[in-house]
């Protein structure tokens, strides 16, 4: 399948629409993670629908000293990958097309959520991101727009903007795509030297350590719920040799653990990576509620996000994984 390259909104609007339009927004330098988004969009749009991939490096979301000038531009390869992955068109507007009057005076504010984690590390980033997403949603007029879960805070903010400002579009998050060794796919991975890439594996390894700690805690809590508290039933358990397991499960369920232990397990991996050559320099490690990106408490239940950001050499990388608290529910 060959994707048509479009440079102006007028050209895009002139296309005949016969079904749902699904849009995948990117800054180019497409990789398998983007291809997964495009294939998912193709499935959602169906054979009668249309998949549009946007390629636009947005200057508003790059701060001073960030990598706007060196961000990879590979449009020819992007059009080819988009087409082979199922896109009908690639919309690659110029800066003048998106911002015809120069930098916009009216912008979207990301609010309090946009000042946390990535927003604290990159002031103004999310205001610029939401502004261009709002403009591209208006320019492309999709029925559904897809974004990767690797940029979890970005996805949460887009969902909030669409809800708060009544955008008539469905937002779909697509799971993170990883290399075989666990490294999350990113256009910035190409900046890493072989030694830096080995160090960068600590991001996903830290998340996996936290995930494993969380799974162990949830399993032990589920076991504790199954263990009766009455003396008579405890004696019955003892008779079949399960009293020690019951005691262990209750101990884990009632002593220190929870979010603090998950963060500690992940932090240990990051601390070890900080001593590597080249070293990892963490920006943050957080376990947050995805509705507002505030830290979760010990009594939290539901979906959470374990997120990390760090630098290796001159390259800054982010990653995250979803965790569910209270998976096993109450014992019946």
Describe this structure in words.
It is a single chain. 41% of the residues lie in helices and 19% in strands. Helix 6 crosses helix 7, helix 8 packs across helix 10 (243-254) and helix 8 runs antiparallel to helix 11 (258-273). It has 332 residues and is of the alpha/beta class. Mean pLDDT is 90; it is low at 249-256. It has eleven helices and ten strands. Strand 7 and strand 8 (294-295) form a beta hairpin. The radius of gyration is 23 Å and the shape is globular. The strands form two sheets. A six-stranded parallel β-sheet has the order 1-4-3-2-5-6, with helices on both faces. It has a four-stranded antiparallel β-sheet with strand order 8-7-9-10, covered by helices on one side.
Q: What attributes characterize this protein structure?
A:
332 residues, alpha/beta, 6-stranded parallel sheet, 4-stranded antiparallel sheet, 11 helices, 10 strands, 19% strand, globular
Q: Could you outline the blueprint of secondary structure elements for this entry?
A:
Elements: E1 4-6, H1 9-13, E2 21-26, H2 32-45, E3 50-55, H3 75-85, E4 89-91, H4 95-98, H5 118-121, H6 125-140, E5 144-148, H7 152-164, E6 170-174, H8 194-226, H9 231-239, H10 243-254, H11 258-273, E7 280-289, E8 294-295, E9 302-312, E10 315-325
Parallel strand pairs: 1-4, 2-3, 2-5, 3-4, 5-6
Antiparallel strand pairs: 7-8, 7-9, 9-10
Helix pairs in contact: 6-7, 8-10, 8-11
